[in-house]
Every structure is written in structure tokens, then in C-alpha cells.
């Protein structure tokens, strides 16, 4: 997968996500010719806009994405972990920084609630936060597949549209998982449970039929675009 991070001068830094070893990996794509062939095969739509891609790709050093799951987060009543030191996640949900800021808010609330006993405050903080951050770690890994493949699948696009329609009709009681995670302060495990309830409600309401119609529309639109492009 390739994604791009915008710069203030309106340029972009492109990031390519690859396996460390095996076919089409950082281990195998090691020459300018191999980089050019790789880009033409997978990203031919953006390759013309990156004339120095081979040199820049080979000049950089691959970095690993890490998920951190650790326990306990505290040592007695003296030290407590927050942010990435306790629960680093891969960046595919864009929630790492938000999660660290939420840690600070919850930790402050726990210290106020247990004034004079940092041990109890730290314990309450971990009990409250860790289940949600374990869920975020799983969601972040799963969202890689969604970003790479799912966003282009007609039935995925259709289901997203159908859920957004319910959201407009019913408000905050019905939200997609991504909307709840990215645009509310609901704890992550609560977001996941809510999304599961929404999907059950959608099936009970016969929303699968709506999804099928919308998916057919996406397929038809894609076919028409290809036909028109061929005519040109």
C-alpha cells in the first residue's frame, strides 16, 4: 500500500508499506530497475508524478510498524506509563496521538478521584484504559486491509453509504465504526460494540437489500467510466 502525507508547500511524502522479506518486499526491491518495475505494476497512476522515486526509495531505510501490548502499566505508586510506551499501535486508524491525549485526561481524572493514593489512581487508570487500547490495536491492524482493498469494493462502499443514511436519519444513535472512532470521544471498545449493534439493526431492517442496490450502482458507475474512458 502507498499513502501520502501532505507538506506545507503542497508537496507530499509518499510512504510505501511492504513486507520485510519475500516477493515484492524490501528484501527483493533493491535496484532502480526493480523499483521502477514495482511502481509501474502496483502504482502506475502515481508513478508519472514521482520522477525520482527509485533514488528516493533506495536512499531511505525501511522502518518497522510496531504494536505494543504490555502489563502492568505502573510500578507501585511511583511510575505509570501513558501513550506509546504502554500501547503503541500501527498508524492505519490515525489514533495513536489521540489515544495518548485521552490517557492524560483519564489519568488526571483517576488522580483526582483517588487523591493521596497514586497506587490506586494508577490501577484505576489502567483498568479503565487497557481494554480500550487493546481493541484499538486490533482495529488498527484490521484497518490496513480496509484501506488497501476494502475502500474500492462496491459492497463496502455501499454498506458505508447505507450506515451514513441511517446516521442522518437517527443521529448519534447510529454511527459507522470509523465515524465513532474518529469523530467522537467514545472509548474504543464502546465504538466497536456500537458498530456491532448497528450492523445487527441494519440486517433486521432489511438494509442488506439497500446495500445490494447501492453496490450495483457502484459497479454500474465503474463500468460506465471504463466504457467512456475507452471511447476517448
Written account of the structure:
With 232 residues, the chain is mainly alpha-helical. It folds into 3 domains: 2-59, no CATH class; 74-148; 150-231, no CATH class. Helix content is 59%, strand content 6%. The protein contains 9 helices and 4 strands, in the order E-E-H-H-E-E-H-H-H-H-H-H-H. The strands form 2 sheets. It has a two-stranded antiparallel sheet with strand order 1-2. Strands 3-4 form a two-stranded antiparallel sheet. Helix 1 (32-42) crosses helix 2 (53-59) and helix 4 (96-113) runs antiparallel to helix 5 (118-148). The longest helix is centred in the middle third of the chain and has 31 residues, at 118-148. The model is unreliable at 211-215 (pLDDT under 50).
In short:
By secondary structure, this protein is mostly helical. It is 59% helix and 6% strand. It contains nine helices and four strands, in the order ββααββααααααα.
Structural class: mainly alpha
Low-confidence stretches: 211-215
Tell how many strands the DSSP assignment holds.
4
Mean pLDDT rating? 84
Order of helices and strands: EEHHEEHHHHHHH
* Form type: globular
Proportion of beta-strand residues? 5-15%
With helices defined by DSSP (H or I, 4 residues minimum), what is the helix count?
9
Q: Compute the number of structural domains.
A: 3
What is the distance, rounded to the nearest whole angstrom, between the alpha carbons of the first and last residues? Answer: 29 Å
Oligomer: single chain
Largest sheet: 2 strands, antiparallel
Helix content percent band = 55-70%
Q: Rg from C-alpha positions?
A: 22 Å
Q: How would you write the strand order of the largest sheet? A: 1-2
Amino acid at each position: 500500500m502507498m499513502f501520502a502525507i501532505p507538506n506545507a508547500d503542497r508537496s507530499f511524502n509518499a510512504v510505501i508499506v511492504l513486507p520485510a522479506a519475500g516477493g515484492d518486499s524490501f528484501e527483493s526491491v533493491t535496484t532502480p530497475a526493480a523499483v521502477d518495475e514495482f511502481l509501474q505494476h502496483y502504482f502506475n497512476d502515481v508513478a508519472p508524478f514521482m520522477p525520482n522515486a527509485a533514488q528516493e526509495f533506495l536512499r531511505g531505510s525501511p522502518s518497522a510498524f510496531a504494536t505494543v501490548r504490555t502489563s502492568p502499566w505502573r510500578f507501585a505508586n511511583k511510575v505509570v506509563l501513558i501513550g506509546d510506551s504502554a500501547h503503541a499501535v500501527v498508524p492505519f486508524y490515525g489514533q495513536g496521538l489521540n489515544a495518548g491525549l485521552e490517557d492524560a485526561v483519564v489519568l488526571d481524572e483517576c488522580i483526582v478521584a483517588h487523591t493521596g493514593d497514586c497506587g490506586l489512581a494508577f490501577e484505576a487508570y489502567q483498568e479503565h484504559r487497557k481494554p480500550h487500547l487493546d481493541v484499538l490495536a486490533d482495529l488498527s491492524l484490521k484497518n490496513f486491509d480496509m484501506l488497501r482493498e476494502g475502500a474500492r469494493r462496491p459492497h463496502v462502499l455501499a454498506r458505508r453509504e447505507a450506515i451514513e443514511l441511517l446516521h442522518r436519519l437517527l443521529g448519534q444513535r447510529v454511527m459507522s465504526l470509523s465515524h465513532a472512532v474518529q469523530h467522537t470521544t467514545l472509548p474504543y471498545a464502546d465504538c466497536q460494540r456500537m458498530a456491532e449493534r448497528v450492523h445487527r439493526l441494519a440486517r433486521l431492517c432489511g438494509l442488506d437489500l439497500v446495500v445490494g442496490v447501492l453496490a450495483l450502482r457502484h459497479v454500474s458507475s465503474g463500468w460506465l467510466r471504463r466504457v467512456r474512458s475507452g471511447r476517448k
